[in-house]
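Marked as duplicate of an earlier ticket. Keeping the data here for the record.
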Amino acid sequence: MCGIVGYLGKREKKELLLDGLQELEYRGYDSAGIAIIEDDQLNNFKAVGKLANLREKTKDFHSEGFGISIGHTRWATHGKPTELNAHPHLGQYSYVVHNGIIENYQDLKAELQNDGISFLSQTDTETIVHLFEKYNKISSTPFEAFAKTIERLHGAFATLLITEAAPDTIFFAKNGSPMLIGFDADEVYFASSDTPIIGKATQVYYLEDGEYGYAKSGEVKLFDAKGARAIQKQPLATDKAMAQKDGYRFFMEKEIYEQSSVISDTMIGRVRDKEIYFEELDSAFFEGINAIKICACGTSYHAALTSGYLFERLAKIRCDVEIASEFRYKEPLLDPSTLFVTISQSGETADTLEALKMAKRAGLKSLSICNVDNSSIVRESDAVILTRAGIEKGVASTKAFATQAMVLWMLSVYLAQKRQTMSDEAKAIEITAMLQTPKSLLVTEELHGKLHRLSKRYLHGHGFFFIGRDIFYPLALEGALKLKEISYLHAEGYPAGEMKHGPIALADSKLFTIALMPKTVHYDKIKSNVEELSARDATILAISPEPFTLADDFIQTIYASHPMLEFFEMMVVTQILALEIAVRLGNDVDMPRNLAKSVTVE
């Protein structure tokens, strides 16, 4: 997730910006840049890669005296990680930095191009600065032009803009993406989170959605749709580690909670009123394709298994899912009419990368679903869809899985559109469910509290069975993997109908069964499977919208209108359950033993 910093004051601005961006490295980035106006002179520097590259570029530059400045670390969503695509973006006399995604940027860009404006980058962000300068020609003040600009933007954004037309002012706006303002005497700071300004500012104001304004001469003027607003400052926290975690105990916990917001980022610009749209895919990309083969490892493999049901059910295309480490050595039969899809959070997973190279040598068209642009798998693929999850610091993947599953769901509907295998009515049902997904991922205090209390009952025993049917079987696999990764307790995921083919021999009071019982998918069948386990004295934790009398423990879910809404809601329950059990056992949740975030060896 991109990071923003800004500063208005008399201190040396280059170092403040670079130090602030350094504190935002935990959010992930692939390029960085700064812009400074001092003595009416605008300077900017951008670099691809780590901040060390930007420091090297700016080593001979110094800023002294009063000035304004903005900086940004970019996590690519539109366009490759290049200097042209890095922020800040330039108009004729203004610079802008921006987090989030402007949904209507293509319409705005076309409008501006019709006015004769040339674009240098592939980003949505560049539309902001050109739109501002267009309005500045016909507005009485630069702030009026900025307000008109913000009114035209649809989507999620946090943005800072500086301009030679007002060389003592920073303009700001926030809607959907986080941003705060820090204060210390006559100095003003801006940032995406607390960490860049801890030790500098003494007070802070956390901007609300729809708020915008400007900072000038050490003062901040704040507005919303109703007009001017008072700023209610509060003391700034002093613990940088906790600030990075936004008050959560662990990065994994923070990442579970932010799934609701990142899934919105995943959908922005792609889920439209009546269709699914992928800017990344050429309209002819699926021509000649009559089958899909997906290769992945671990959590990404579970997301792939989920999509296998969706591609065949919705797009009516054969979909085979392979574990990459096995695929490489099975001498697979590869047909050029098969699309080869790889899924990886990091884009560096060694087995998946080698499987992709095999497929390419066999002449298959390739698509990667990844969270890191310019990674090895992305560079090797013919096309890429970025999941936009932001950096994930917890080794046990949570939001990466959620965003992968969402991309694959969207892709199955997109392909159904292309193949005309879905009616408009059926497509509308899928799109409506997608737009409801962020709500299904919300974690309530009541839910987390109940799972915390339940977790003390699941610390001992001889193992866990996570069971489900259909798309809930891959979710059972993923739930079991999360638990074993961070608790070090034995857990297995099973198709519920397979229990009687051997595993039920293990059933007794010390076998904990986590039963995924969706109302929308084979409810009566899985109910019967769980009843068989209960009859053999297994301890049952049922997760379902439908109360289940034989359950020893029961988590009642809310959504029962679409299988994928139930899928995402139950996913969150299994993640928090694993977290709370691991915490009670005293484990390091973010860095489980023997594991690494990116597996780059066989």
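See parent ticket for discussion. The mean pLDDT is 91.
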